[in-house]
């Protein structure tokens, strides 16, 4: 089971779940933890408010966990292994029992604030580079960086790599990528250059905050973005979460690790179908489900029951 992060939010993204009590209860818990009405934000918007990093991160965490709880309430099994894309890693740790939900909400709100304040407004950027191999994208970053920061930060699928750093360097990188044969180079609508060296100051403060948070041994393995490894030691988990802020999201390797460990079915648990699409591009033979509506939970249950029979 995999959990999406920032970028999968949309206006009215939880309206399909309005009649599911465990989902509503999860948002009540989340709203109480943060002192604001997250349910209104994810059902009514406005999108501009939801898209603010400090709102997107707790809203997506609450949505991911709420849908997982709905899956479990209807008798769904615990996954054999979990992972989350960037912010989604916190949801994976919550459902694995490693992080308390309320603690995780406060952590991701702090994480968002730290990320936003780490780089002055309009000085950082991210862009998706489509149609180049990983090594070429890294070479483009080295060449276009000059005296600024520019790094490959999200290895989302073969031929889809996100770069991040100083805005001027990102713009140079986009132009150079096109010269090198990229099909497209798209500036992303984000204000924070995630997962690059510009996030190191934020990571230091987050690491301090993590020392104050209880972390338990996960009930199921959680593959961490920074290392493509699962940890049982709480301090290793804290360290992986801090390093994640300035380390690449190694999603292609994460999926490959699942496949090598025998995973043949993956469910994306959260709003949207971004990860489901990436999974199919990474591993065409993988059976992929996107749990975006109550009906999709039933479809997954029926599919699993048929296979058991």
Order of helices and strands: EHHHHEHHEHEEHEHEHHEHEH
Number of strands: 9
Overall pLDDT score? 95
Helix content: 40-55%
Give the DSSP E fraction (strand runs of 2 or more residues).
Answer: 5-15%
Topology:
Blueprint: E1 2-3, H1 21-34, H2 38-44, H3 47-50, H4 53-73, E2 82-84, H5 88-95, H6 101-118, E3 124-130, H7 134-145, E4 150-157, E5 160-166, H8 167-179, E6 184-187, H9 200-210, E7 222-223, H10 234-244, H11 251-260, E8 265-269, H12 274-282, E9 287-291, H13 294-308
Parallel strand pairs: 1-2, 2-7, 8-9
Antiparallel strand pairs: 3-5, 3-6, 4-5
Helix pairs in contact: 1-4, 1-6, 2-4, 4-5, 4-6, 6-9, 7-8, 9-10
Quick synopsis:
By secondary structure, this protein is an alpha/beta fold. Helix content is 50%, strand content 14%. The chain has helices at 21-34, 38-44, 47-50, 53-73, 88-95, 101-118, 134-145, 167-179, 200-210, 234-244, 251-260, 274-282, 294-308; strands spanning 2-3, 82-84, 124-130, 150-157, 160-166, 184-187, 222-223, 265-269, 287-291.
């Amino acid at each position: 089971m995999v959990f999406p992060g920032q970028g999968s939010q949309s206006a009215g993204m939880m309206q399909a779940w309005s009649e599911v009590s465990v989902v509503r209860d999860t948002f009540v818990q989340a709203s109480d933890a943060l002192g604001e009405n997250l349910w209104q934000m994810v059902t009514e918007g406005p999108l501009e408010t939801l898209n603010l990093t400090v709102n997107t991160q707790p809203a997506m965490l609450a949505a991911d966990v709420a849908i997982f709880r709905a899956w479990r309430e209807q008798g769904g099994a615990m996954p054999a292994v979990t992972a989350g894309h960037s912010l989604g890693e916190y949801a994976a740790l919550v459902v694995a029992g490693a992080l308390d939900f309320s603690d995780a909400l406060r952590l991701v709100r702090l994480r968002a604030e730290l990320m936003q304040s780490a780089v002055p407004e309009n000085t950082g950027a991210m862009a998706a580079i489509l149609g180049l191999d990983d090594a070429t994208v890294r070479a483009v970053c080295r060449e276009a960086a000059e005296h600024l920061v520019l790094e490959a930060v999200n290895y989302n699928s073969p031929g889809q790599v996100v770069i991040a750093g100083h805005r001027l360097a990102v713009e140079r990188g986009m132009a150079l990528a096109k010269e090198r044969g990229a099909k497209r180079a798209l500036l992303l609508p984000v204000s924070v250059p995630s997962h690059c060296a510009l996030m190191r100051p934020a990571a230091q403060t987050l690491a301090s905050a993590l020392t104050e948070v209880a972390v338990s041994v996960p009930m199921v393995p959680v593959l961490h973005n920074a290392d493509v490894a699962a940890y049982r030691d709480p301090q290793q988990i804290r360290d992986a979460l801090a390093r994640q802020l300035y380390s690449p999201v190694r999603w292609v390797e994460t999926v490959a690790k699942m496949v090598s460990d025998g995973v043949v079915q993956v469910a994306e648990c959260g709003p949207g179908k971004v990860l489901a699409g990436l999974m199919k591009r990474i591993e065409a033979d993988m059976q992929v489900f996107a749990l975006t509506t109550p009906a999709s939970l039933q479809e997954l249950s029926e599919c699993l029951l048929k296979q058991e029979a």
